[in-house]
């Protein structure tokens, strides 16, 4: 879990991809670990990469950091996921690209595919956004002050809660945890006022109890927040209000309706795309159904 000792930095040697390098270097320096510089190319491209590899290895960000370089051929997301297994990777750092309407409608980006396929935590960064690495004596250092854990109490959020707690404790950061009651309960209340409002009241009480348990079990004195609305909007808004440096979220992954590829839930994608700070995506058990259930929270009966 944490600290991250083996960090994979996938790159196509573009300026955009370079945005994630400072995080890889800072985490490796913090733990005395290494950065694996990883590139997926076709046969023609691989033969002409040496100058770019040399430039990357000489980057000041990697000063005094142990590095390893690997170039392979194949599909980026699957090769990166396999490399994470083969090289005992603890963290992958990726830079998100803006997507046009066509890509949003018909497919995910390579970075989102990496998050969906990865067997380990993935730090997704999107420029410009709040930074939590700072230059110190010519090198980058981690400066995490506030962490926001987004939880829904499902199995997919357990590993995220554990990792957020470990990072908080080791870096002496401030931890906040948020649960968002989805706006569909309000819709139910309108349709079925005699039952919907009672269920919503019970759910609110249940969430308050679970959040209190989370604080006690973590031993971090986390501040808890219960919001109502669209989950991704409330998470992003709270992160901005708190000036959070990092969002930690569990990434339940579903099988695609249109093939064998893995896809992220839409709320997770939207958090990553709109967050004011980097998002640490923590994998958990795979979901075998193609779509998530509308409601999975257990509402206690009175």
Rounded to the nearest angstrom, the distance between the terminal CA atoms is: 39 Å
Give the full name of the CATH homologous superfamily of the largest domain. Answer: HUPs
Structural class: alpha/beta
> What is the multimeric organization of the chains shown?
single chain
Top-tier CATH class of the largest domain:
Alpha Beta
Describe the protein.
The chain has twelve helices and 14 strands. The protein has about 300 residues and is an alpha/beta fold. Strand 6 and strand 7 (about 140) form a beta hairpin. The protein has helices at about 15-20, 20-30, 45, 50-55, 75-85, 100-105, 110-115, 160-170, 185-190, 195-220, 230-240, 265-275, and strands at about 5-10, 35-40, 65-70, 90-95, 120-125, 135, 140, 145-150, 175-180, 225-230, 245-250, 255, 260-265, 280-285.
């Amino acid at each position: 879990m944490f600290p991250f000792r083996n960090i994979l930095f996938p790159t196509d040697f573009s300026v955009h991809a370079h945005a994630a390098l400072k995080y890889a270097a800072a985490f490796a320096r913090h733990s005395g670990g290494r950065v694996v510089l990883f590139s997926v190319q076709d046969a023609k491209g691989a033969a002409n990469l040496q100058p770019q590899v040399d430039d990357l290895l000489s980057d000041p960000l990697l000063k005094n950091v142990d590095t390893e370089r690997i170039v392979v051929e194949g599909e980026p997301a699957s090769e990166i996921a396999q490399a994470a297994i083969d090289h005992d990777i603890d963290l992958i750092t990726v830079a998100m690209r803006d997507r046009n309407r066509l890509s949003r409608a018909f497919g995910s980006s390579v970075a989102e595919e990496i998050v969906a396929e990865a067997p380990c935590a993935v730090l997704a960064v999107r420029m410009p956004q709040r930074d939590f690495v700072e230059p110190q004596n010519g090198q980058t250092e981690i400066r995490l002050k506030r962490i926001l854990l987004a939880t829904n109490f499902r199995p997919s959020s357990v590993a995220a809660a554990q990792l957020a707690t470990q990072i908080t404790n080791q870096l002496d950061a401030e931890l906040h945890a948020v649960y968002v009651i989805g706006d569909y309960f309000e819709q139910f209340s309108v349709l079925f006022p005699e039952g919907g409002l009672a269920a919503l009241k019970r759910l609110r009480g249940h969430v308050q109890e679970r959040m209190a348990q989370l604080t006690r079990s973590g031993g971090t004195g986390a501040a808890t927040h219960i919001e109502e609305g669209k989950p991704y909007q409330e998470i992003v808004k709270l992160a901005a209000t708190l000036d959070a440096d990092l969002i930690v979220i569990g990434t339940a992954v579903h099988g695609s309706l249109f093939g064998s590829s893995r896809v992220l839930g839409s709320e997770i994608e939207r958090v990553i795309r709109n967050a004011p700070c980097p998002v640490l995506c923590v994998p958990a058990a795979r979901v075998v159904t193609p779509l998530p259930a509308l409601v999975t929270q257990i509402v206690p009966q009175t």
